[in-house]
Specification:
Helix content: 25-40%
Strand content: 5-15%
Pfam families: Epimerase
Protein name: NAD-dependent epimerase/dehydratase domain-containing protein
GO molecular function, one term: aldehyde dehydrogenase (NAD+) activity
Structural class: alpha/beta
Keywords: Signal
Number of helices: 13
Largest sheet: 7 strands, parallel
Distance between the termini: 19 Å
Organism: Quercus rubra (Northern red oak)
Radius of gyration: 21 Å
CATH topology: Rossmann fold
């Protein structure tokens, strides 16, 4: 259950970005004609149908080894883009696309907090997808949220200023916009109230969003996107909280609904979010923000749909917040001794006590974003979890 906050936190954003003076047509022109092969700069014979050869933009992806970043790399690679990834030497590279006879992902070692390695990784690239972030509901050292989520973005923005990067697609999060308590459904115009933050992750993403807004006003070609609670097939990590919650539920470590069931989140399937990112590259206007959210629903509804799809019983009880909160405090105390990040923590419980509902109408209109229903997304994810042996039904 603690998994809840882990990825609920994995998405954030706030404040309206200043629209940069770039025409829509220019924003959509991300394939250029060339007589040179972009992958190796070697002359290529002209086509019999066209004297020019299509050359795809070279793309740098940060956070490529995460649940979302790995899927994004696969999609870009399949579309023919030369892709470079900035990864740490300790990173698990299993989520990256395997090399083919024609091409391979270019791996560069470094870190978004190490400016020189980041600057070197940007060399020769046209587009950056800045997906890298620390996504956890709680850490014993909260400074990591700010060094990576805030400092990392500052470094990327500086690298864009010093290179010939044409567009930066920045992965923010619904958390950056703040909660929508009172039954409201927010859009990109909402600004985080900053009266309180449920987690340090939320605070770091809200601060980073202000930095993105300022950069856009200064002419940096940045397009921030704000996913909802991401779920779907892929890595079962803190960035895939729904999968972790389902695993807890089907293994009876989470025997009931969380709280009263009045929570509300915007659930985004990872494949839809990937398509939204690529659309932001192709069609997004620098300085504009785009919510890549999905169906607004409670975790109670998620559990009920899972029961219907798998033809299993629905939970029979509600676990009160006071019980979850007490368990969270105990888990944090144990974590300080063992060093293992807890599944449940007090910040995660705070998130569950608020509503986070958003509209993606702008992305639908300007990016042709088309999110699937929660039912369809779960119908795909549940058999995948079963095949992995993580759940039984």
């Amino acid at each position: 259950m603690a998994a809840v906050a882990a990825s609920i936190l994995a998405n954030a954003s706030a404040a309206a970005l200043v629209s940069a003076s770039t025409s829509a047509n220019a924003a959509q022109d991300w394939i250029v004609a060339s007589s040179v092969d972009c992958r190796d700069d070697k002359p290529t014979p002209a086509s019999s149908k066209d004297s020019k050869r299509v050359c795809m933009k070279k793309i740098l992806v940060t956070g490529a080894t995460g649940s979302l970043g790995g899927k994004l790399c696969h999609a870009l690679f399949q579309q023919g883009h030369p892709v470079r990834v900035l990864v740490r030497r300790t990173s698990d590279l299993s989520s990256l696309p395997p090399p083919t006879d024609a091409a391979a992902i270019e791996i560069v070692y470094g870190d978004v907090t190490d400016y020189q390695s980041l600057l070197a990784a940007c060399s020769g690239c046209h587009v950056i997808f800045h997906v890298a972030a620390v996504v956890e509901p709680w850490l014993p050292d909260p400074s990591k949220f700010f060094s990576v989520n805030v400092g990392g973005l500052r470094n990327v923005l500086q690298a864009v200023r010093e290179t010939t990067i044409e567009k930066l697609v920045y992965t923010s999060s619904f958390f950056a916009l703040g909660p929508t308590d009172g039954g409201n459904v927010a859009d990109e115009n909402q600004v985080h109230h900053e009266k309180y933050f449920c987690t340090e992750y939320e605070k770091s993403k809200a601060i980073a969003d202000k930095i993105a807004i300022q950069a856009a006003s200064e002419g940096v070609p940045i397009v921030p996107v704000y996913p909802g609670v991401i779920y779907g097939t892929g890595k079962v990590t803190s960035g895939n909280i729904v999968a972790k919650m389902i695993v807890e539920r089907f293994n009876w470590r989470l025997p009931g609904y969380i709280g009263s069931g009045n929570d509300k989140f915007s659930f985004s399937h990872v494949d839809d979010v990937v398509e939204g990112h690529i659309a932001a590259m192709n069609k997004g206007k620098p300085g504009e923000r785009y919510l890549l959210s999905g169906e607004n629903a409670s975790f109670r509804h998620v559990f009920d749909l899972a029961a219907i799809i798998t033809e299993t019983k629905k939970p029979m009880l509600n676990i009160p917040f006071w019980a979850i909160d007490a368990y969270g405090w105990a888990s944090v105390l144990i974590s300080r001794i063992t060093g293992k990040i807890p599944l449940i923590s007090p910040p995660a419980v705070k998130v569950l006590k608020h509503q986070w509902a958003y509209s993606c109408e702008k992305a639908k209109v300007e990016l042709d974003y088309n999110p699937r229903s929660l039912k369809d997304g779960l119908a795909e994810m549940l058999p995948w979890l079963k095949n992995l042996g993580l759940i039984k039904f």
